């Protein structure tokens, strides 16, 4: 199914174990219209279901990761249509079903829904000219795909409040300093290549252990420290039931290289 062709995406696997999705709607700076989101959902689900894929990279173009939800599509939307059809709710599905790590490599504009999509990744990398922001206030609305929650967790309340209330942009440098981006690269290509290299590294580990890592780190976002540590310990104990724990620790003891079974 990775072979499928899409209207708004380029989908490939440029490195072993790595799924690669490029948003490809250049005329609208990758504005996230509903057909694009549906395609993204399909592509991510295909990689989730593909046992040869261990990690996924999502990027846009040099000019724009994504300039937001599609304003032209939204401008005549009514409350009853938005509420009645759960507008934007399908966006949340993108990350809730995805158990494999997703690295978002951001060059150019990541505004509104684009910033929110970038933050849905498990690891965010930025190129030198990445521009983040939640400009919804300028359109008479508010972030609608998790921006007020994820940006606040990422950079803290006062910075998120300032960003969301002013609609001002966050530069790549600031994103790095504030912890919104895990790394800031010197060129757009290095950003994407860096994301692919990290994805390849992750894809080289036991898929069972990788899945558990992602699960427990994500739990820290919802649980208090005590419950979170207890949750982690349960999952840690559970991994002693996996073959890959035996394979990994035996290989270490014998100074060999583990050949993961993903079991
Ligand atoms: N929706 C629909 N079309 C968009 C778009 C968007 N979010 N962003 C850009 N485009 C389109 C433009 O309309 C333009 O199309 P035409 O050539 O047909 O006129 C094309 O992309 C190129 O854009 P610009 O000519 O504006 O390019 P620029 O370089 O002058 O400016 C920009 C770039 C600063 C990103 C500017 O396009 C912009 O401000 N875009 C809107 C950003 C925004 O407000 N995003 C938030 C959307 S609301 C949201 O996302 C809600 C949510 O939380 C889910």
UniProtKB/TrEMBL annotation:
SUPFAM superfamilies: ClpP/crotonase (SSF52096)
GO BP terms: fatty acid beta-oxidation
The keyword Membrane belongs to this UniProt entry's keyword annotation: no
Keyword set includes Thylakoid: no
InterPro entries cross-referenced by the UniProt entry: ClpP/crotonase-like_dom_sf, Enoyl-CoA_hydra/iso, Enoyl-CoA_hydra_C
One of the record's GO cellular component terms: mitochondrion
Gene Ontology MF, one: enoyl-CoA hydratase activity
Keywords carried by this UniProt record: Fatty acid metabolism, Lipid metabolism, Lyase, Virulence
Annotated pathway: Mycotoxin biosynthesis
Enzyme Commission identifier(s): 4.2.1.17
Family listed: Belongs to the enoyl-CoA hydratase/isomerase family.
The protein's name: Probable enoyl-CoA hydratase, mitochondrial
């Amino acid at each position: 199914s990775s072979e499928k062709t899409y209207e708004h995406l380029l989908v490939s696997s440029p490195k072993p174990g790595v799924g690669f999705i490029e948003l490809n709607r250049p005329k609208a700076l990758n504005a996230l219209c509903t057909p694009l989101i549906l395609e993204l959902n399909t592509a991510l689900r295909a990689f989730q279901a593909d046992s040869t894929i261990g990690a996924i990279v999502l990027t846009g173009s040099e000019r724009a990761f994504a300039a937001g939800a599609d304003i032209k599509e939204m401008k005549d939307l009514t409350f009853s249509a938005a509420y009645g059809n759960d507008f934007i709710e399908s966006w949340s599905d993108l990350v809730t079903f995805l158990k494999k790590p997703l690295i978002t490599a951001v060059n150019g504009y990541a505004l509104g829904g684009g910033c929110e999509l970038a933050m849905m990744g498990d690891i965010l990398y930025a190129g030198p000219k990445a521009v983040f922001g939640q400009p919804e206030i300028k359109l008479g609305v508010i972030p609608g795909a998790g921006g007020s929650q994820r940006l606040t967790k990422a950079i803290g309340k006062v910075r998120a409040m300032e960003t969301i209330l002013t609609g001002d942009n966050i530069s790549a440098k600031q994103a790095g300093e504030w912890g919104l981006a895990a790394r800031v690269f010197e060129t757009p290509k290095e950003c994407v290549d860096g994301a692919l290299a990290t994805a390849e590294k992750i894809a080289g580990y036991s898929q069972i252990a990788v899945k558990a890592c992602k699960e427990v780190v994500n739990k820290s976002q919802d649980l208090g420290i005590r419950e979170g540590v207890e949750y982690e310990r349960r999952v840690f104990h559970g991994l002693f039931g996996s073959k890959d724990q035996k394979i990994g620790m035996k290989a270490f003891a014998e100074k060999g290289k583990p050949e993961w079974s993903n079991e």
